[in-house]
Amino acid sequence: MTVNNETFFRDVITLLRQGKRVTIPVKGTSMLPFIVGEVDLVVLEGVEAGSPAGLPHRRAGKGDTVLFRANNHFILHRILDFDANGAAVIQGDGILKAKERCGRDGIFGRVVSVLKQGKHPVDVESKGYRLKIRLWLMAAPFRRILLGIWRRLFLTSTRKA
Asked: What is the pTM of this model?
């Protein structure tokens, strides 16, 4: 079944604002190597504009992978930092240069778990996972090479599994 993106994400955001966690599929390669499109699922909780009503406002932080809206598209990328105006500076892990900026009112959800191959949960809050992310972000000058190696070694076998 194919669902219109606007309808799909409107319903996702409604559930997040109700305080529910929502599991969604991902597409694309912009979050490689940590999230593989059309293979992995992500579990979201509401933050910022998607914070549950009646509960303390949840904020997204540096290093979080967030669902946000930019240029009329919903995107799942990582917050690198916040600029002087408080807007999030966001980039996909598999993106080499381009960055987006998004106000907190355009951020709706935060990834709390990645389901590798749709079933094996990865705790994105664990010290080990956070260390991998920090190392990946520090390796920015070498990411093109690392992504090329990763794709050759893992991407083909991951999509077949």
From this structure: 0.90
